[in-house]
């Protein structure tokens, strides 16, 4: 059976992601053991909370190693904190090692505006990505975050947004994708993004 594995490591909004994938016609399985990742056609790493806690939980469960073993074999999508974990490191609370799938580090947003950044913002698309197929520059998506990735390679950045400063909104590198925003909470635009991700397995 074809399915998308949604990693459960105790810090993700699993139900809304699973519901969105089901709505667009994709089977899902909640994954808290490596075998579910191995047999999946695609993987989603959701996440809400603090970078160090999430990274530690992934390692404790053995899911970091299991996820890294699937890189290059199937598409992977990190959402919100899940995207941040794709980077080499994070500086939330203290310096912490990430998954190292996108070169760069996650830092607190440098802005005079109120944090966390909560609400709808337009996307500035760049570097052409299948994740945004069928969508126009400027489409709005929903954000909730105080930290954001700083990529070492601008070619890995596929969307930015503005919140008193330019913020990386989405990344892509070697079949690994990340959305700082929540596609599962971003209406029709978000559903199109998830649909595009699902079609990468076909």
Can you walk me through this structure?
This protein has six helices and 14 strands. It is α/β, with parallel strands linked by helices and 202 residues long. The protein has helices spanning 14-23, 34-38, 51-60, 63-68, 81-84, 187-199; strands spanning 4-7, 28-31, 42-45, 76-79, 87-90, 96-97, 102-108, 117-122, 124-125, 140-145, 147-151, 157-162, 166-173, 176-179. The model has no long low-confidence stretch (mean pLDDT 94). The chain has one domain (4-199): Class I glutamine amidotransferase (GATase) domain (Rossmann fold, 3-Layer(aba) Sandwich).
What's this, in brief?
The protein is α/β, with parallel strands linked by helices and 202 residues long.
Keywords:
202 residues; alpha/beta; Rossmann fold; 4-stranded mixed β-sheet; 6 helices; 14 strands; 24% helix
